[in-house]
Each structure stands twice: as structure tokens, then as C-alpha cells.
Amino acid sequence: MLHGRTALVTGAAKGIGLAIATAFRTHGARVVIADIDGPAAEASARALDATGTQVAAVTCDVTDADAVRAAVRECVDRFGSLDVMVNNAGITRDATLRKMSEDDFDAVVDVHLKGAWLGTRAAAEVMREQGSGSIVNISSISGKVGMIGQTNYSAAKAGLVGLTKAAAKELAHRGVRVNAVQPGLIRTEMTESLREDIWNAKLAEVPMRRAGEPEEVAGTVLFLASDLSSYTTGCVLEVAGGRFI
Questions:
Q1: Residue 15 has pLDDT above 90, yes or no
Q2: Would you state the pLDDT for residue 192?
Q3: Domain for residue 208, yes or no?
Q4: pTM of this prediction?
Q5: Rounded Cα–Cα distance for residues 11 and 91 (Å)
Q6: Distance, first Cα to last Cα, the chain
């Protein structure tokens, strides 16, 4: 589905990002794994491609415009193009409004929303000239309904929807598509650290009665990255097992 194409995935050293990078590689793409944890990115890249010819790793703080541009340049210089950009990097700093610090609000919005804006802008510079490309932003079901203790995260993830739609309108005439995915309760290192009662309460909200797997999010991202979605832009796809429909 992605043979001959190059993809850059941020926050891809583990979790959903790594599942996306793995799916892309399985379907023929050359992949650049970008993560703020450089050693972890290198280890994941080696695990996907021991030869180092099809998968590369870069250290990237997505809140740093120069670092994001450098990651895009590395992708183009090494593999010759940037065909798919996935803005996946994220953090959580959960607390209620009363307890949340301003620094924690800023940190989450900077990584999720500003980081995706920087990634979209840098990728679009290359894709406009190519006349093609797919950008996928990883939002969250939290951006659709809002979650207690996540005013920062919910605001950032909702903002990603607006960013996606506005960028899609700006770039469509240049052959560049921009879409978003909203995962729900996905089994990752972060969610598995939840208290059992909180996990069970969230699980009870899912009509499919199970948590999703990172690979299931990756499958939807793969669809949006590929020509199967060639007439799809400005779209937000939920991967949430029917939660909050």
C-alpha cells in the first residue's frame, strides 16, 4: 500500500507511534522514526530494519521548529521524498482545573497542538512542491467529548481537529491531503498504568466491550496514508470501539 514512499512518524519510539511505523514498513514504506528519546528511537528503528537502509531514527522535540524542520530534511535527504507525515507525539499532565499548573497546561498544548502545527507546516513545504502527500494528525476521543482532569489534553486534541480541517482546505489544491484520527481507549503503556477501577469504568463505556490495540489505530492511519483514501481530506476518523457515538 505504501511501496516506494517515505513516511515520518513523530513520537514513534513506542506505543501507537511505533505501531504506525511498523504498519507502514510492513506495507513497503521507508520510515523515519522521530522521538524526543533518541536512543529509544534508534532501538526501535533497528528492530524494524537491522540493515538501516529502510528505517532511520532522528531525535526530535516537536515543540522546536528547527528540530522539526531538521527531521523533515533528514527524511528527504536520506530517502528522497516525504510522502506521509504522522503527527503523533504527545504527553499527558493530568489534573483538575483547580490543581493543574499553568506550566502543565502549556506543556501539553505545546506538544500536541503546536507540535502538530509545526509538523504540518514543515511537511507541507515539501509536499506542495511534490504535488502530493498525506498528513495524518493523531487527535483523541478526549478532543470530542472532553475528559475530567484533562482540560489541557482535551483542548489540545480538539484543536487538532480545527488544525486538520483548516490545513486540508489550504493544501487540497496542491494535491496534499490532511486528516485526523481520534483513538479511544487503546491498550498502551500509558493506559495500562491506570487504576483498575478507572480502567473498568472507561471500558464499560465501549460498546465493543474491549480496549483497542495500537495496531488497530495504525490500520486506520495506514488507510489515510494510502491511495485507498485518495478522495478523503479534512476527515476525522474515530477508532474507539463505538465509545461516545
A1: yes
A2: 78
A3: no
A4: 0.96
A5: 10
A6: 30
